Batch of 2 targets.
Target 1
Amino acid sequence: MKRYRYAVAITALLLASHALDLPAQVEGEHISTSQNHPVAAIQDTETAAQRDARMAWWREARFGMFIHWGLYSIPAGTWNGKQIPSIGEWIMNRASIPVADYKALASQFNPTAFSAHDIVALAKSAGMKYIVITAKHHDGFAMFDSKADPFNIVQATPFHRDPLHELAEECRKQGIKLGFYYSQDQDWTAPGGAAYKTGNHDLPSHHWDPAQDGDFASYLHTKAIPQLKELLTNYGDFPVVIWFDTPTIDMTPALAGEIVALLNQHPNLIWNNRLGGGYKGDTETPEQYIPAQGYPGRDWEACMTMNDTWGYKSYDTNFKSTETLLRNLIDIASKGGNYLLNIGPDSKGNVPSAEIERLQQVGKWLAVNGDAIYGTHATLFGSEAGSFSTTEKDEDGKPKFIPTWNWRSTTKDDTIYIELFTWPRGSFHLDKLPRTVTSAYLLADQSKKPLKITKSAGGIDISLPSQALDPIATVLVLKTK
Ligand code: FHN
């Protein structure tokens, strides 16, 4: 299993690319910390109260939809008759597709089945509160109307529509927030954009076509920054999030500072920790894993796929069960984080039915049990999530975290929620409680029938009915003072 290092020295965050064979990146020991940023980011200067206000909707949301959609959905994992290993959106890189050949895909891209209405409605029915879509991924193709570069969905395809604009309108109508993913550093079709190949971690860029050669700063000044300006100004009150990705050593503090100066003009914007140049951004972004204890004191968002790819691959049917997805959501919320769960529409704009089914099932659970997720804080307990092994080591040689799956807990000021995966016989026992419990009931019980509470020196016991109310997770509500 390969490791994938981000040039984000300030957080010293080493991300595991568990299910995915991702390229290694150069870790920037030269990357500066916030002390010597050439441009102070809003995060460096705002008060705690200002930050809380800026992050309020995002912390309330807890569940969002990631959308990876682009030209790579046409080959869908197969090039020249060969199935290309690894994630679908990396096919250009993994198959070393020449720039001209890849760009030629644009003339075939006509996703007439795309419906912004249906995608936003799907997110809503899943109980998701925001969407983050790939405005431009590493392949350099803009999924929006860009005057800055002609390699975009409006100018270069027969589709001639701007899905970001359509999504923005629908999100407004349906009450969902919209953010844009933008690959600011890697760009495999623009001269000077960074490009990485597996296996060589020593050099910053690995172009496989002379058309990729060029100067990174020029790429940034002529494409990335102008396109970021377009994204930040052409969509009204959106985006609320800019989701950067794969920073490399090319993104010096000075160059990143130019982007930060632009971001600072949008004081409500939230952006992640993947800009590069030593900027820590607003959110930690563990990918394809849930950190054992979250990131106490930091906002964080685990991004995950439903199968083993972000961009559509016609033959990847390795979908996680609804039970796994729901457990992930609850586990993440219990550690104070958000869950950004990916869909990968195909080249016609259809969302795979396996993804739709699972999202709707998660949404059904949230429709009943959403109070235990939205606007909640992390557990007051902690040991229920598992423990560090005294014998087994993880990939970093540190004690391995062994999760346990009996229950999780989330909290609000006057409530403790216990999400029960394993149904206890007779009663649920808690040894010690940081608050006084005044009443208890099951969230899925519309009558809120009070459950008997027995307090003793050994803790408290809540009597439960003989059967769980939900096959995956039944929520016990403890009202507290
Ligand atoms: O290389 C990308 C990958 O294609 C995908 O977009 C993920 C989503 O977080 N980010 C990068 C890998 O970390």
Target 2
Amino acid sequence: MKVESRNKPEKALFRKLQWLIFFRALFAAVLLGSGVFVGIHEHLTFADQPLVAVNGIALLLVCLSVLYSVILARTSHLSILGYLQISIDSLLVTGIVFVTGGFSSIFSFLYLVVIIYASMVLFRKGGMFIAFFCSIQYGVLVSLEYQGVIYPIGLASDFVLKNNNWEYVPYKLLMTIAACFCVAFLSGLLAEQERRAKQDLWAMEAQVKRVEKLAAIGEMASGLAHEIKNPLASLSGSIQFLREEIPYDPDRDRLMDIILREADRLSALVNDFLMFAKPQPGQIKLVELDVAIDEVIKVFTADNRRNRRIAVSRHLDEGVFIEIDPEHLRQVLWNLLLNADEAIEGEGGIDIKMYPLDKDYVCISIADDGCGMTEETLSLIFDPFFTVKAKGTGLGLSIVQRIITSYNGLIDVRSELGKGTTFTVKLRRIPKSSV
Ligand code: ADP
Ligand code: MG
């Protein structure tokens, strides 16, 4: 899979995994280098060095890094690769802890390092998973040592028993596990915040690009539309004048009717188009969002043209207000619902959610389990006249986009081919105190 064909979150994960592999290899190289240095300095062979097992793990890490790089270049399952690498890291940390004294090893802090970067790469879920996995490993290691089943390499069993304060076992075990989960929770929180900020930034970047493109196209098209309107008006005027001047003939009159009717149709189309290219500012009102959305859904579900085998579900929070022209809101919801409906062939579901994001913003999402889109389609859907439908106009989403940006809102879309699409609209809400 080429990097160019990935979407932004995947590209970001790819880069993070590249960095992870790089730093892991660097860490292993430094570890190995220091081993070699000590060996030369103390005139010891590789096998005689005190931390020979640690050197072995470092060597294994170097080999694994090469293997990971090869897999990373070829796989499209980045998330699985991330989980695999970090789980193996945690096993290696257990190995390091074991060979450096087990329960009394000073290296148990390495678990926390692994959990922190697990959260950075795999977010909260990944961080929590690795914290859980590390806790189990450490728990098993210490329990086995405690019961005398295993001894840290290089230390005699007597030594272990004498030198460890076993009464601290439950205490240290609990503390380490609690530390693992605390670190996972905190780093997960930060990672989620960063992810959300990045997603907003990506959506905004994409929107700015779309708006720029749309503005240029709209400007050109509205000029053209004006140029069409003027000759059309002279055409209709001239025909009407002719009709009054020449003697009545039923055949000619029918032809003139056709000319007038078609000229009218063309003029209406141009007017519609002008409305899209240069929309009029709306009449802004205070709207209670759940009520307004409910109304649109009601009309939509009662519409005869829609597919009756699609279940429409809703999850709307109450008491959220926004300032918008109700007609604009209706148009946005209608266009998105219609697209969702058209994306589902046969049975399926549309889910509409509305929830406050924070005290300033509210999100409306419309998700369908329809056909989804390819990356290429996804990059074109906001272009006016882009459509894949036989009877589509390709104006639906361009209008939605125009309206949303005119209220300083954001629209974002996520889609997976064959699985479905979710459009999310983010709008400024009116704080409760000012309603
Ligand atoms: P139209 O509906 O007339 O084609 P739109 O601007 O509404 O025009 O949509 C443009 C294109 O975006 C559609 O032709 C379709 O390919 C894609 N699209 C929009 N919404 C969805 C959806 N929910 N699922 C899949 N594809 C969609
Ligand atoms: Mg449409």
